């Protein structure tokens, strides 16, 4: 039953992957296809040995039908997902979570409290760090870097700092790969208690996953979101909001003469629309998509008129 569940998991993820990559050509989904076929053949082999009925071919037929059905289920879930890549990603994350939790269960099922404390302290560390909302500001830092802005240039509401912190905590959970690896190693008798090689490998996986998780799942996606926002602004579209940063197109009129308005970062041209990213310390941050730089102007010196949707052709 254990191996059948593993093969079913591979089959459903492979089916979703094939559906997501089908339009990109054979080169993009052939590996998923091999995985799906291998999983189905594995199910046929298991039912051949495990289902003893007459006639003999009934067992393998059950495995073939079940395996093909699971692959088809993965395809259906991917096709009906709200966005095309979402289906396989959700299934992959669900499958990975199952594999990790199974490995952890293999590790902890015979634990004593003394052993548990040794492992639980590092596991709780991300949760302790997450108590401080500031840890989530890493995603805002990488997002704003695409605009050549610093974190202190935009004021981020505390509630969004907390939400971003939860994202970083979730990314830190990749560290759980280490205890899961150790659980499988002990279950299959691959870990020798007094040998340092296994412990060194465990430490290596723990360190790599602890660093790679926040980088791959929090920092890098934030930078990509910033680049997409810059591209949207260059095309005259309003970028989507991102963890408390709500870019919007505005027309900006000076309270007095434009030439007398103090500006940081470049020349202020009231006839041009600007993408307002936010404000901090009483200064508005305005992104100029043509010059690809941000201006900082005191809010008391300007009048801001929001423009819904796309950038207006002209202001004033």
Short summary:
The protein is of the alpha+beta class and 316 residues long. The protein has helices spanning 2-21, 26-50, 58-79, 84-108, 113-130, 137-145, 158-172, 177-187, 196-234, and strands at 248-254, 263-264, 274-280, 283-288, 293-298, 302-307. Keywords: Membrane, Transmembrane, Transmembrane helix.
Give the SSE layout.
Layout: H1 2-21, H2 26-50, H3 58-79, H4 84-108, H5 113-130, H6 137-145, H7 158-172, H8 177-187, H9 196-234, E1 248-254, E2 263-264, E3 274-280, E4 283-288, E5 293-298, E6 302-307
Antiparallel strand pairs: 1-3, 1-6, 2-5, 3-4, 4-5
Structure write-up:
The chain has 316 residues and is of the alpha+beta class. It has three domains: 1-101, no CATH class; 110-238, no CATH class; 248-307. It is 58% helix and 11% strand. The chain has nine helices and six strands, in the order αααααααααββββββ. The chain has helices at 2-21, 26-50, 58-79, 84-108, 113-130, 137-145, 158-172, 177-187, 196-234, and strands at residues 248-254, 263-264, 274-280, 283-288, 293-298, 302-307. A six-stranded antiparallel β-sheet has the order 2-5-4-3-1-6, with no helix packed on it. β3 and β4 (283-288) form a beta hairpin. α1 crosses α3 (58-79) and α1 (2-21) packs antiparallel against α4 (84-108). The longest helix has 39 residues, at 196-234. The radius of gyration is 27 Å and the shape is elongated. The chain crosses the membrane at residues 29-48, 57-78, 90-108, 120-143, 163-184, 196-217. Keywords: Membrane, Transmembrane, Transmembrane helix.
């Amino acid at each position: 039953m254990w191996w059948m569940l593993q093969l079913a998991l591979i089959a459903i993820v492979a089916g979703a992957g094939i559906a997501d990559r089908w339009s990109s050509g054979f080169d993009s989904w052939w590996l998923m296809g091999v995985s799906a076929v291998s999983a189905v053949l594995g199910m046929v082999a298991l039912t051949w040995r495990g289902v003893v009925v007459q006639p003999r071919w009934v067992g393998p037929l059950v495995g073939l039908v079940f395996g093909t059905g699971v692959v088809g289920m993965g395809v259906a879930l991917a096709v009906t997902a709200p966005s095309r890549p979402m289906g396989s990603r959700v299934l992959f994350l669900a499958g990975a979570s199952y594999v990790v939790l199974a490995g952890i269960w293999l590790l902890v099922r015979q634990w004593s409290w003394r052993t548990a404390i040794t492992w639980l302290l590092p596991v709780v560390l991300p949760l302790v760090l997450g108590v401080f909302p500031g840890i989530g500001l890493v995603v805002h830092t990488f997002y704003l870097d695409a605009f050549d802005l610093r974190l202190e240039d935009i004021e981020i509401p505390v509630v969004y700092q907390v939400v971003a912190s939860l994202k970083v905590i979730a990314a830190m959970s990749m560290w759980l790969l280490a205890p899961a690896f150790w659980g499988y190693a002990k279950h299959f008798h691959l870990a020798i208690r007094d040998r340092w090689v296994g412990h060194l490998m465990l430490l290596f996986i723990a360190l790599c996953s602890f660093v790679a998780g926040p980088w791959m799942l929090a920092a890098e996606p934030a930078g990509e979101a910033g680049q997409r926002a810059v591209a949207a602004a260059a095309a005259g579209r309003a970028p989507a909001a991102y963890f408390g940063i709500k870019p919007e197109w505005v027309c900006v009129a000076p309270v007095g003469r434009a030439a007398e308005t103090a500006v940081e970062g470049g020349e202020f041209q009231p006839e041009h629309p600007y993408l307002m990213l936010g404000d901090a310390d009483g200064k508005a941050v305005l992104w100029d998509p043509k010059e690809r730089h941000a201006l900082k102007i005191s809010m008391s010196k300007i009048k801001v008129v929001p423009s819904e949707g796309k950038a207006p052709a002209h202001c004033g």
